[in-house]
Amino acid sequence: MPKIKNVKAKTSNVVVVGAQWGDEGKGKLIDFLSQKVDITARYQGGNNAGHTVVVGEKEYVFHLLPSAILHKSKICVIGNGVVVDPKALLGEIDDLRKKGVDVTPAQLKVSGLCHIVMPYHRVLDGLRESVRKNKIGTTGRGIGPCYSDKVARCGIRMIDLLNPDLLRSKLEDNLTEKNEIFSKVFKQKDFHFESLYAEYLNYGKLIGPYVCDTALFLNRAIDNKKSVLFEGAQGTFLDIDFGTYPFVTSSSTISGGVCPGSGVAPTKIDKILAAVKAYTTRVGEGPFPTEFSDSLEDEIRAKGKEFGATTGRPRRCGWFDSVLVNYSIMVNGISELAIMKLDVLDNIKEIKICTAYEYKGKRFTDFPMDFEVLNNAKPVYETIAGWSAPTRGVTEFKKLPVNARKYIERLEKLLKVSIRYVSTGSKRSETIIRY
Ligand code: IMO
Ligand code: MG
User: Fold this and answer.
1) How far is CA 101 from each of CA 72, 84, 98, 107, 322, rounded to the nearest angstrom?
2) Do β-strands 350-359 and 362-364 pair in parallel, antiparallel, or remain unpaired?
3) Does residue 1 belong to any structural domain of this protein?
4) Ligand lying nearest the CA atom of residue 83
């Protein structure tokens, strides 16, 4: 009998996504969950991500490196769907080395198919933002222009940095076009070929030892019953298709993005878990129906330290939106949730949950596709009494104040998926595992 392919292995391959607008606490969750798996893999986004991990008194922020990198015995993968700024990646590896964490090629695998974020992408990102009437509020890391080049089939990939002749011809082609745009459209100075070529050839030499066919690596590992945790970056409503376009990022942030971004087939994915904040935040522009309009924003921002981990920008804050998260659950196929930052709501007297939107007398319980509705919708709230007691560091569900338990249980009922984890602080230990 021929060998049967695509049979689900017994081990569990789990995807973690953000179900809101990013910054849901994916870093903490990944660091925590990766202790139990063999491999952690990023599959989209780039150094626009900012994933924070706190160990003891030390705080680490990862932008390109998977958040499991602190676990020495675990393997981390940067899959083909990630756009890599080599300077940023080397900088992150170097920063970790200075903190006593060595990242070896045995521990980190980078796909040769990753597209490279070039300096002209970063500059273009900023210039486009500066002339746009409807600003997106990008992170300025060149993510959009890099993904545009990928789709336009003129991108430079990691493997090209290892091939001097190919890099030369691709960079020449790119600069011929880009320099025209910079000088004629934006009246900016040209990029100099020789210095850029030498710089990126050198990055190829430095990153080369980490480069491999990560699709092959991941699939072989899965065949050998190893487990993989896929680390999503950004959040569902920043997805290029399902997000609040054009105020989105340029990749597929939903769970389906794992397959093109890693080369692992959908039949090999066992579970989708999402991180959600106990409230909602968003950085950058775009609609946000449950955004606070009063001093509560300052209070939550201060308590939750809601400042971007990548750009330091203050995050916009608002109530939990179950219309939004329900749509996330659908498009991602989420079966379990982790509620993050519950402790930030500790002393809020009344807590609201958005259960529908109202627009022109019509009630919407499904997330509306139409921006007209989204921009002008009035959220319909139900109010839950706060718990006015500390939850910071609580590790057992039954030890939470009764109203905090009621809040979680109400969310579970509205979302119809189980809330397996509740985070009560930024440290690994400050976590409730319900089952
Ligand atoms: P993590 O992984 C929150 C936002 C930017 C901007 C939009 C487009 O930490 O959750 P881009 O630079 O990607 O072209 O910007 O997306 N954005 C994020 N917001 N968390 C992130 O990542 C984000 N990455 C991008 O603020 O609104
Ligand atoms: Mg972040």
Assistant:
1) 8, 21, 7, 11, 40
2) antiparallel
3) no
4) 1
Same domain, 341 and 241: yes
Whole-number CA gyration radius for the chain: 22
Mean of pLDDT values over 56-76? 96
CATH number, domain containing residue 202: 1.10.300.10
Residue 88 shares a structural domain with residue 131: no
In tens, the pLDDT along 151-184 reads 999 999 999 999 999 999 999 999 999 999 999 9
Distances (CA, A) of 312 to 250, 279, 295, 307, 315: 21, 20, 20, 5, 9
For residues 53-73, one letter each, b for 16 or more C-beta atoms within 10 angstroms of the residue's C-beta and e for the rest, the string is: bbeeeeebbbbbbbbbbbbee
User: Ligand 1: which residues within 6 Å by Cβ?
Assistant: 18, 21-23, 48-51, 136-139, 141, 143-144, 233-235, 238, 247, 249-250, 283-284
Number of structural domains found in the chain? 2
In this structure, is residue 7 part of a structural domain? Answer: no
pLDDT tens-place string over residues 107-155: 999 999 999 999 999 999 999 999 999 999 999 999 999 999 999 999 9
Can you tell me whether residue 84 is helix, strand or coil? Answer: strand
Atom of ligand 1 nearest to the CA of 233: 2
Distance 398 CA to ligand 1 centre (A): 35
Instruction: Give the number of residues written for the chain.
Output: 435
Listed residues 210, 241, 258: the one ending a domain: 210
- Which of 51, 63, 115, 121 is labelled catalytic? 51
Domain that holds residue 125: 115-210
User: Is residue 63 flagged as an active site residue?
Assistant: no
Determine the Cα–Cα distance for residues 26 and 42; give it in Å rounded to an integer: 12
| Domain final residue pick, 210, 239, 268 | 210
pLDDT digits (tens, 9 = 90+) for 180-239: 999 999 999 999 999 999 999 999 999 999 999 999 999 999 999 999 999 999 999 999
Write out pLDDT tens, residues 336-355: 999 999 999 999 999 999 99
- Which of 336, 39, 427 has its CA nearest to residue 212? 39
Written as one letter, the residue type at 349 is: K
Please give the DSSP secondary-structure letter assigned to residue 72: T
Q: How far apart are CA 123 and CA 245, in angstroms?
A: 22
